[in-house]
Amino acid sequence: MELRDYILRRLFLLIPVLLGVLILVFTISYVIPVDPARAWAGGLHARPEQVELLRERYHLNDPLYMQIYYYIDGLLHGDLGISASTRRPVMEDLKAFFPATFELAIFSFILAIIAGIPFGVISALKRNKMVDHISRAVALTGASTPLFWMALLLQFIFYYKLGWLPAAGRVEVPLERITGMVLIDSVITGNSAAFIDALRRLAMPSFCMAFWSMGYLVRITRSSMLEVLNQEYIVTAKAKGIPQRIVNYRHALRNAIIPPITILGIRFGWLLAGAVLLETIFAWPGMGRYAASSILEVDLPAMVGYCLVVALVMILANLIVDITYAFIDPRVRVGGKYE
Amino acid sequence: MKKKKLTRIEASVIACAVILSILAGCIGQPKEVVEEEPEVTDPDTLNILAYGEPDQLDPATCYDARGSLVIHNLYDRLIGYDSPDTKVINPRLAESWEISDDGMEYTFYLRKDATFHDGSAVTADAVKYSFDRVLKMNQPPSWMMAQCMDLNSTQVIDDYTVKITLTKPYAAFLPILCYTVASIVNPDVIEANGGVAEGEENEWLNQNETGAGSGPYELVEWIPNERIVLIRYDDYWRGPAKLPNIKISFIPEIGTRVMYLKKGDADIATGFPETNIPDILGSEGVTVFADPSYDITFIVLGCRGPLADKSVRQAVCMAMDYDTILSFVYHGYAEKLCNVVPSGMFGWHDVGCYEFDIEGANALLDQAGYTYGSDYRVDPATGEILGAEIAVPQGDEVRSQIALLWQNSLAKIGFKLDIREITWAMMYKLIRNEETDMIISGWLPDYADPDNYTDSMCGSANAKAIWGSDYKNEELDSLIDQAKWEANTTARNDLYLQILLIIKEDAPFVWLAQTAHVEAHRLWVKGYFYNPCQSMELWGIYKE
Fold it and tell me: Residues of B with CB below 8 A from A140's CB?
């Protein structure tokens, strides 16, 4: 199977998956014992006629299958509905909040790779040496430290005590938003003050996220490398007199990198779904906060929109991982064929 | 082998040392801070940390405090409050007004120097347009005006005189005009941006303001989930506001907000939880405002089963340890609530409170024939244990503690209280479906009038619809209705005395606390006042 066919087939699979997600979210929201119309109309202060008006407007009086039909009809026309909690089209909200999460995720992802994979490799190569112990201790701390605690600690030290970094927000310097990713926008518009401000504000949340992901990455890379280093072909390579550096990085690492890449794919999907606590602590206007507030305000259109985006992101992240396998490991041919 | 073991120990020691040094660094740091007299930071901008983001900024649609804070300062109204006292209403766009003897006609004389942000004059036409717009759009807060106005009510007499003829003489009409729903909007701007559609929101005004308001500030930018920025409107009729810029940031995490305040990067934190007050008390340059509000907390008694009996309701009211709750649950940031109307509001009367009196409660139940079975009394009507269930919202520490304290003291009068922790939404559903007997809830005012409390809570229709209670007293219903439409203030005040006496006697609710409105401020913030029925007035605030 050609790579192109494989990608197309995987993309085609998006349709039933997204439909499944849609039906699931609608069904859950249909059975939960909450009256969203009353919540939107002012809670206890809501007047019955206002509640009824909102029920009509959002088709809440219709049976579940009709609600799903209306939603899919809108979706096919690029309309994800109006958010009840922000009063804006959900599509507009997602366009505003997704870039924030994407920027944070990409930044922390890169940090995690830069630190995680080398640490894991060195740790494996220097097994049970001091450097191994240190990197394992750091990895364990990263994987086991609660994200919110790390975030608060960083804020306390770098904002409150030292005053080196801003505590929260994305960018305070006025900036024209083009892509929604403030670092890129500041580069495009040549706004260096905004770039520096955005970078400073990105530092703490991205470090937290990276540290968290890095912990897992170090451990997986280390164990994968150790497994490969014990393989016979490595011994053969060494026996042939191939320099140690080439054995380690060309023969061992290339084979050991598959499990870390799998982990990275899943992690990236998680990062893109938004980390609610982290985004809350750093007042980061991303998807996690949007999802949390839409759940708290029983904002069904926003909840469904969020779930669809997350499903889409997870599928695409996994697809990218599968394709990456093919590039890294010549034995792997996407579509299940081995040569 | 030896070397290997040694390395592990070394590594552990180093790891511990690193962690400890970080912790020691964190703990040790405050001692090094040199305390200096704080200087005003960012002197031209008032930095507000809001507890939540508005969902929209259209005065005809907005029905929450988060949006009201912004709308109140972008738009002006005919009248408003210049002090914490809700009984004193002051002129705004209306220089003066007259009320007919029958309380049906209100004539407002507008000031001639007020302009919208696009420079056009605020006229009587704009007032009519604004009020008719609210009624036509029929959005959640519109009921306040619709209960006594229709599309024929507002009449333009001349450019600067407007007469409003009510459909019924509602005495709370002036307090309603202080609410953001009665804000005056610029007809030209609205018509150019979607106009008015019956039963529909105006999506443009939900997110924008450009030229639509006549308040002391204009909307510069609103970045969702980040901030709202306002800039001073220099031609404001009261003179330009003291501070040129307002920045309202949405920082949901309380720890972050505390740090911002202590560092001086924020001036005001709204909606500050009482439980976090100790975090900032004593911090240099920070103060806590705890002003009496009209926000009340109470227990709804379902008034069915054993609670249908007035004696039982009175007894459970007497079995509440009010003082302990105020001191240890509310940490002193609340005062005792004795009846449905909060103190400080028109219509409040000192009709006495139920006091914590176990002996009195026992005597009351003995008298009513509830004899002890084993640990608890028995309901003679059913032969079952005297008791009830209360639903408490999950995760609400304050309400859980109240329920636990009450359970303990109710046991002393032989009343078995079962506590059921449930989500907020489920709590109301349960009591409305008669699947639980009591809930702990609260009420915030829409406008400063006792009718907003008495009818909303004790009128039998609302008692059933909102609170799921079977309480019904026809005499009370009639008095509430009479008081609602009574034009004579003295007669109306007397009616509220009668209403409160009946409510005290019937005890359909356990009135608990009138909570304080808590805000944390930097000490350099001046010119602030809190009115329980008006959002923060930014016009007079300055930093010094």
Answer: none
